[in-house]
Amino acid sequence: MAPPAVAAGQGGQQPQQGGGGFGKSITGIIRMAVFWYFASKFFSPKRAPTDPSGAPSPLLSNLFQQGQPLDMWLYLSEHEKFNDFSSDRDLVWHETNLPYASWRPGSTRTLALKYDPSEALKRNGSLYAHVFFAQSGYSPDPTDPEYQPQAAFGRTHAVVKYLPKSRADKRRSLLGSSPDSTEDPVASKVAGDTQNDSEDDGPVEWVSYLKPNITINLVADFTKYSKNGIPSNIAPYLNVDPITENYYPTVFFNEFWLLRDKLIPMNETVTELLLNLEVGPISMTKWQLFMQIDQSFQIHRSYGSMVDGEGDELKRVFLEGNPYLLGVTMAVSLLHSVFDFFAFKNDIQFWNKNKSMEGLSAKSVVVSFISQLIVFLYLLDNDTSWMILGSSGIGCIIEFWKIGKAMHIEIDRTGRIPMLRFRDRESYAQNKTKEYDDIAMKYLSYVLFLLVAGSSVYSLMYERHRSWYSWILSSLTSCVYMFGFIMMCPQLFINYKLKSVAHMPWRQMTYKFLNTIIDDLFAFVIKMPTLHRLSVFRDDIIFLIYLYQKWAYPVDKKRVNEFGFGGEDDTAVASTEVDAAAKEEEKKTN
Predict the structure, then answer these.
(1) Least buried of 7, 135, 402, 494, by fewest C-beta within 10 Å?
(2) How many CA atoms are closer than 13 Å to the CA of 121, on its beta-carbon side?
(3) How far apart are alpha carbons 504 and 513 in whole angstroms?
(4) 584 versus 206: which is more confidently predicted?
(5) What is the mean pLDDT of the chain?
(6) pLDDT of 186 higher than 50
(7) Which one, of 324, 301, 326, lies nearest residue 311 by Cα?
(8) Residue of 84, 63, 64, 81 whose CA lies nearest to 73
(9) Termini Cα distance of the chain
């Protein structure tokens, strides 16, 4: 496909750039697309169905042969219906001797065209591309004496796309005016802010965007279809001649690689447009794959599992990403998902079987729940898709369940409104664990308070928010992301004071550590803010300290493990069984 903006002599080559993000839903989307495509190929009718009289249904064949030379005319008109073939003003491109369904040199042609938009087009007008093909030597004009209906075909496609205008940014400076805020609130609309304000702002205003790329593909399809057995995904695009009952080559306007940010907004300031035109063949498999992936995107958007613009980001990975880096990213993403699953499984298993809080920080569990709840409320305030909300909500429920395992939760009905009351477990309160946990949280809370206060004040002074509630949520969420590692420090302090790590859920932490290593890889190969990149490496420091403590503090057989058992208990049980077996053997001998 032609790139968004190239010179005439570049042949439509896309520049290769490294980097690019990779969404987690790409695996499911591609799998669904490939499944649909092969299902339509293998489960289509194997033989032509018969009509009521018993005669086989006639087969539809392509009217053109592979390699047959074609001539092409491309017209740009502001009218959807076109029949002025003699208009030199509307004719923008003419090519001759294009080999049909052939990939030899010369089968793909490109052109960089400078187009002057009319005043009507600048004012939300329409523009259509009318492309016509005919056998070499024939005319596409029906009024021409040499016109042959079976020798010419064409298709019309809209070059202008209408999208809703970005609404004025509802966010404002809560202090009246930011010290460095001089930008227009309309121009500062961010792409991630999907707040629906249609009810407040009245009817939606639509803006026209022109597509800078017009890529015309002729599908290489020579399949013989039965008249009553055309696959459902092919039928809407099949142009059948009513006289011969055969079909013309399918004309496909390829916009698969045309990203939304490449569209040109039309207004009075636009005086000249650079259009990149391309015509060439496309295989049947590639055409079907493009359509199925686009349909998959639409299904995911309708289910709420994909937001607008995410499909473009996935395509951008293939457009701008290095293929080797892309393969490594896919493999690493799969490993990341596997480790996430095992870490989640072992975390649930650990807390489900845990009988003692000795050596474990109960306050860290409570703070972890509060952090998860803040993230959930932030996502809810920003109208995130229901799948992400559901995942975050389940995480909140699990964190609250872990509080019930770490502490006693009781319902206090003494007042008018029942309240939850939390009480420490005996295994936590009756030893040094609670004392060390209180000390660690006391000093860390001072540090955390200063960081939260500083970050919140900065956000209040230099950033805009929709409301005070939104400012509180965004400030707390930023602190959770930036300073969340501080919540892991109390456990380090408890380990240091107890000189033991036997109580730690090492299996779960191992999977989390492997995921941190994978995050380190992404931090090097993927573009991301510096603060987020630093947050990845700060977790490495915490885990390395944990590993050092595991080496420095050997396992104490006298200390109970996460299941409430100690190493000496296992030794005592084993020795008792050995003594019993020896006595039984002695009785048999006597």
Answers:
(1) 7
(2) 24
(3) 14
(4) 206
(5) 75
(6) no
(7) 301
(8) 84
(9) 93
Q: Which residues pair with 88 in a beta bridge?
A: none
CA atoms within 13 A on the CB side of 173: 16
- Nearest alpha carbon to residue 164 among 125, 199, 203, 130: 203
The residue extents of the domains of the chain are 59-165+204-284, 327-425+433-574
Q: Which two tokens stand for residue 131?
A: 């492309």
Using an 8 Å Cβ cutoff, are 113 and 275 in contact? yes
Task: Tell me how far apart the alpha carbons of residues 455 and 531 are, in angstroms, rounded to a whole number.
Answer: 13
Distance of alpha carbon 334 from alpha carbon 461, whole angstroms: 42
Nearest-angstrom CA–CA distance, 135 and 67: 11
Give CA–CA dist 247/208, Å, rounded.
Answer: 34
Token couple for 427: 């295994």
Q: What's the pLDDT tens digit per position in 466-506?
A: 788 888 888 887 777 666 666 677 778 888 888 888 777 77
Token look-up 């600048």 returns: 122
Tokens of 477: 């969420």
> For the segment 363-403, what is each residue's pLDDT rounded down to a tens digit?
778 888 888 888 888 878 776 667 667 777 888 888 888 88
Quick one: pLDDT at residue 383?
66
| Non-local CB neighbours of 119 within 8 Å, separated by 6+ positions | none
Strand partners, 24: none
Cα separation, 425 vs 362, in Å, equals 9
By the 8 A CB rule, do 239 and 252 touch? Answer: no
Rounded Cα–Cα distance for residues 428 and 358 (Å): 5
251 φ, ψ to 5°? -95, 120
Please identify which residue in the block is written with the tokens 């040094």: 432
Residue type, 467: S
Q: How confident is the model at residue 200 (pLDDT cuts 50, 70, 90)?
A: very low
One-letter identity of residue 541: I
